[in-house]
Amino acid sequence: MARNKRHLEPKVKKEEIELVAMALLKEKGYDNTSMAEIARSAGVAANTIYWYFENKDHVLIAVLNRVVSHAMEEVITQREQPLRTRVLKLIAQVESSGSLMTDVHARVRHSPKVQAWHDQFHGMVEQLAVAELVNAGVGPDEAQLDAKLLIYVIEGLLAHPHKLQEREQIIDQALKRIFA
Amino acid sequence: MARNKRHLEPKVKKEEIELVAMALLKEKGYDNTSMAEIARSAGVAANTIYWYFENKDHVLIAVLNRVVSHAMEEVITQREQPLRTRVLKLIAQVESSGSLMTDVHARVRHSPKVQAWHDQFHGMVEQLAVAELVNAGVGPDEAQLDAKLLIYVIEGLLAHPHKLQEREQIIDQALKRIFA
DNA sequence: CTGTATCTTGAATGCCAATCAGCGACGAGA
DNA sequence: TCTCGTCGCTGATTGGCATTCAAGATACAG
Lengths: 180, 180
Description:
The structure is a homodimer of 180-residue chains.
Chain A: H1 12-28, H2 35-42, H3 49-52, H4 56-77, H5 83-95, H6 100-108, H7 112-135, H8 140-159, H9 164-178
Chain B binds a DNA duplex (30 and 30 nucleotides) through α3.
């Protein structure tokens, strides 16, 4: 039935799997999305995915890279906005990727690769946050710690549902406390 | 082979399962502990657990209740200590239960019962934190928000590994920012 | 035309949570 | 003392899952 399609899509197949996986993982989360379902949506046999990806966690990582690089592009376009606005937009942005970030934390203990991705991602975010804070007037020695505080607060907001207004209040309070 | 043991242990069996499950879940986490393993350690057949608990998440909840009530007892004995000491002790305490708290966040999306447990737990912790902050001199209107900030920072510390010294620095910075 | 590397697949394998249909022990009532 | 229903427990099974295996199909090089 389904034949070899190499002549049709030479290197696009992997990309298509990633796109399909991204949609499904965003919508239903890691645990509720089976490899079989990803394969079905991509129009391939279940085990075909294993030719392109070592295992399910590697699919997750590929999806995460797409999501993050897209988010970074968005962030860049907001360069002119005040910090508060950018933080709120960032949270809304990440939230639109569903439970992906929570899934990462859950998979970190199972997969060293996801662990590594997470650590590197955290490092990058912290660097960005430190730069933002220094730029906004926080002392360089304190910026390192304040960056962690801010990131953990944002993670808390992402991990727990909040009404929009409450979320803004919390961010405002955090910024107020940092820029006392 | 294994016969009915009702005459031997009337209502202790459930407790034993909980104790065994607590040890295993603390040590290896939710996903890496199978029902079969819990059963084997408790000396019963795999499906016997389902006589006492609706499903695996209910076992988790029973274990969480034990862990939390034990932690609360510990907290009470620390009543005299300064806030900073108590927070650090609390973090160390929760950390000794392994990845249990992370597991809760991961299961929240799968099980409404775990969701409910989590929400109620968060409410309780927030109440305690607000009381602490008000008692330490934070304005009552701000205490609500600061409590959330502090809790999210603590959750961040629990979710990510830190050297002891770094953890203390972060807590100190958080308290410094709140009590500016 | 032939061999080799590249894709793709159907059919396993093995682990897991959860279910099913009973089996033996006890306790109440005859 | 009998018996019958409920309680505590069990072996066997089911269905879903990630992952592996052996082999088929395709393209390309020589």
